[in-house]
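Hey, can you fold this?
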Amino acid sequence: MNKVTTTMNNTIKTAKNIIRKEIDIKIKNIDKQELGRQSDVVYKKLIALPQYQLSKRISIYLSTDNEINTLSILKNIFDNNKEVFIPMYEGKLMKMVKLKSIQDYENLPITKWNIKQPSVNDVRDDALLTGGLDLIILPGVAFTMSGKRLGHGMGYYDKYINNYIQLKNKKPYLIGLAFNEQIKDDIPTNEQDVNLDLILTER
């Protein structure tokens, strides 16, 4: 990697961290009722989409307090007899593994990051090895309406999607869910960052 590329990457990294801090403060200043209201509207928009309705195998993140709540979506996926896959983090890699039911979700242990996820010894179907995914519903720190996404900095989703495309020669439909306050006019990106097909907000 030459000096110019290194400098550019460092500049992008710094700019991304500034946006992360800015959005973090914004989300902390929204009251819980408003977060819930926006989540409800986003849920209704999502389940009305043809891309959602036609998808049989869906990956969804299990939300934390500062993300669009995905519990209603999870219930709807099960109610419509679709297959659900959730993130499972192991070191620097992420897999999408099968979730069997709402009871299964409720029994999941909570990690040190305060995210529900199956334990490492829990053997589950891996989406990549059992037929792929039609749709991935992604979290993020910030988004642009044109599909750019800023994650938490570990690159889990970007690595997963790039790997998926290499192995399967196709890409699942990618939908980002966001609060209005997470939308930016632009986000600095590099070649590893994956653009999403659609960003859903309450607006």
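Oh, and this one too while you're at it.
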Amino acid sequence: MVRWQPGTRERLQATAMQLFADQGYDATTVAEIARAAEVTERTFFRHFADKREVLFAGQADFLGVFTHGIDEAPADAPAFELVRRALGSAGTYFDEERRPFSRARQAVIDGESALQERELGKLQTLKIHLGALLRDRAVPEPTATIAAETAVTVFHLSFQQWIAPDEDRSFAEVVAERLAALTDLVHPGH
């Protein structure tokens, strides 16, 4: 069960997620979401362009999570430290309260190929964003692109583990495990 949040936007998201889980994404209409959330369709459209946006809203907030970790790093921080900090700041966003919603959201996305493509696009946008941030901090090419690609891969693998049904570790713990595996790959024995 997805937890209900206080605001209208959050209530619409929680209601939509429950309907998607109960009857499927394709079978759920905006009218049904609005009715179940006890708002008008017009109110729904003030918050979301369509029902797909219920799953993908907040892209700027999502990107900002990673930006904060890089912005707070010392000016001379090497690329891998910037990746570590970006992923570390994501741990504050992906907290225990967000896990049920994230699990439900991913289940809906996994069931629809068009939504899977949109999710891949979101990750691609993150790669582009991180690459730009790294280049802005004078990380040269190809290091900036490799670091951005690596950060998104570590994020994606960490997120998939974090939402696994039997997982109870924090997002930060899962990220640390993935970064340790990466370090062992690149620098065995360190």
